Amino acid sequence: MLGPNSTIVIPRSTLSIEFGLGRRCFLFTCSPTPIHIAATLKHPLSGVCHTIRPFVRKFGTGGGTRRNVFAAELAVTGNCSALPPQVCLKYAAGVEAVAALRREELLYRRELAELAGVAVPQTYGFFTGGTMAAPIACLIMELCMSTEKLKNPSEFCRLAMLTLCKVHAAGVMHNTELDLRHFVMKEKEVFLVDFSGALIHPCGNAHPVLYKDAYSRFNDDDHDQSECQELVNAERGIFPQIVWDIQNKMGNHGRKQSLDS
């Protein structure tokens, strides 16, 4: 039994983040084997893979840079072989942002656990700090910055659609206006990221249909509730539109070059 002057010490791991210009913050998480992680931010991440990036830069097809997601290098003090030296850090500040990041971390750890390294990045820890009124948090994730390039945007969109279906089959809806920033690549695999607005979703239609009349029964007045509108929108609209936009702009770019010459 504990005596009257005894205290309970909860083992905690610490994370220090070096932002540069002397700015640093300290965060903590409960851990049976405490370690200290020193993270140095390298650059913000846009989330646009190398296959699509040339088209984004030339033609402006979606995918802006986000300022709360960074590539980082880690220096670990303590016994931890699971942490890679280079990771992705997703940072949140403020009550609502921290709550959203905590919800995202729980989805990665629970509903999406079997898809880690398959359709979503692996995660390595969730750290919090600050105060009740001004909390801060950080999620350490697998860094997906593949230099592999697929042959064409159509193949990227096909893999992205399959990844989205895997996430739905796991019972999660992304619940955002999907664009190129939400898909990253590891080697030649496409992963889905940013689940801060995601919902638990028992999806009964987590399979791509891949033919043009598959959703012909859908209209504004009569939706089959057994179908999933996020998958319908992706397969009928988002990915075909991305491919069409890129091919169309490539054609216009080529015609402009020929006229200029």
Would you spell out the secondary-structure blueprint of this structure?
Layout: E1 12-20, E2 23-30, E3 36-44, H1 53-59, E4 69-77, E5 86-93, H2 95-109, E6 123-130, E7 135-142, H3 153-169, E8 172-173, E9 183-186, E10 189-192, E11 199-200, H4 229-260
Parallel strand pairs: 1-3
Antiparallel strand pairs: 1-2, 3-4, 4-5, 5-7, 6-7, 8-11, 9-10
Helix pairs in contact: 3-4
Protein name: Protein kinase domain-containing protein
Protein described:
The structure is a single chain. This protein is of the alpha+beta class and about 260 residues long. It has one domain (about 10-250): Transferase(Phosphotransferase), domain 1, CATH 1.10.510. The chain has helices at about 55-60, 95-110, 155-170, 230-260; strands at about 10-20, 25-30, 35-45, 70-75, 85-95, 125-130, 135-140, 170-175, 185, 190, 200. Strands 2-1-3-4-5-7-6 form a seven-stranded mixed beta sheet, covered by helices on one side. A two-stranded antiparallel ribbon has the order 8-11. Strands 9-10 form a two-stranded antiparallel sheet. Strand 9 and strand 10 form a beta hairpin. The radius of gyration is 22 Å and the shape is globular. This is Protein kinase domain-containing protein. It comes from Lactarius akahatsu.
Quick one: how many beta strands?
Answer: 11
Shape: globular
SSE run = EEEHEEHEEHEEEEH
What would the average pLDDT be, to the nearest integer?
Answer: 79
In terms of DSSP E residues, the strand content is 25-35%
- Counting structural domains, the number is 1
In the predicted model, the low-confidence regions spanning at least 5 consecutive residues are 58-63, 211-223, 254-261
Q: Helix proportion of residues, in percent?
A: 25-40%
**Count of helix runs:** 4
Structural class: alpha+beta
Cα-based radius of gyration, to the nearest Å? 22 Å
CATH fold call = Transferase(Phosphotransferase), domain 1
CATH architecture: Orthogonal Bundle
> Major sheet, described briefly?
7 strands, mixed
Organism: Lactarius akahatsu
Protein name: Protein kinase domain-containing protein
